[in-house]
Amino acid sequence: MSKRLLLTSVSAVAISAFQALPASAADLPPPGMTYKAPAAAAPPDTWTWWVEGGAQGVFGPDPSVPNLTPAFTTPPSRWGWDAAGGFDYRFAGPWHILGDFRYGQNRSRASSSNPLRAFLPTTSAATVIVAGTNTATHKEYNWDADFMVGRDIGIGTDAQIDFGVRVAEIHGVTNGLAQWNAVTSSTPVHEVFAYQQSSTFLGAGPRVAVQGSIPLASAWSIDYEAGAAGLASMTGLTQTVQGSGLAFFCAAGCPVAVNSTKTTMVFNTDGTLGLSYAITPNAKLSIDYHVDAYFDALPVVSNTGNVTNANRIYQGPSLRLTYRY
């Protein structure tokens, strides 16, 4: 009897000791089984929208009007405006779909000159050189659109690398009027040449970019983006001329018609650097400086009368509002 009582007491003590073990030890899997921690929850899908507007400066060679003497260039207004907007949708953990559109315009600016024209009063007379007047205005606009797929790269804050496609266009227009008073021994003649020159660039191709944010003290941060694209492009330059009062043959110095088209590859780089302040947990306001360069993109007539492709570099400050939810 005492032996049975002793065994019962030992069993009760063992059961009580096992139940008193910490929960972490009691929950261990049986021998031979592997313990796996639960998977971390994927970050929620997130929309980010942004809009901005500001000033745009344009830099690059100015177009000339062919055949005028001396050479005459028509620069646009060096400063204009631009506006942009875009979105970024984060889904499936580190992946993003994003797009943006930017439009800029540099308004017309007037230029003038006193071109020299050589004409023949009669078939037997000597060539006569006459100075005239010439006035023209030139303006340009530009736009680009991107559609990209991005992925987080885990460096810094909100850093990601993006791959996709860019489409871009640049268009410049010159409108001018050149006129001369040709005086002969009998009757004075007023001759006028109205001309319009149009330069166009349209390209599309692959683009890669990197963007992110660097936190500073409190609610401040530095935002950055840099991209590069190779654009298969079509460029064209046309100049049309209409004359009135043309009594004499123009030997030299009058505007002439031009028609030139070309297919080419254009290299494009762009970058944005901004200082941001978080006005709410979901919204921030940024002061940015944006640069967008297209190399050998826009066809222009050089001072020597040849059609060549010129660089166009757009840059300037802007104010951006970003909202995330």
Task: Please summarize what this structure is.
The protein is mainly beta. It contains two helices and 13 strands, in the order ααβββββββββββββ.
Number of domains: 1
Q: Give me the CATH architecture, please.
A: Beta Barrel
SSE sequence, one letter per element? HHEEEEEEEEEEEEE
Strand content: over 45%
Q: Give the helix proportion (percent range).
A: under 10%
- Shape label: elongated
Number of strands: 13
Q: What is the CATH topology?
A: Lipocalin
Unreliable sequence segments: 1-40
Q: Which oligomerization state do the chains in this entry correspond to? A: single chain
Helical segment count: 2
**Largest beta-sheet details:** 10 strands, antiparallel, barrel
Find the structural class using helix and strand composition.
mainly beta
Biggest sheet: strand arrangement: 1-2-3-6-7-8-9-11-12-13
Rg over CA atoms:
35 Å
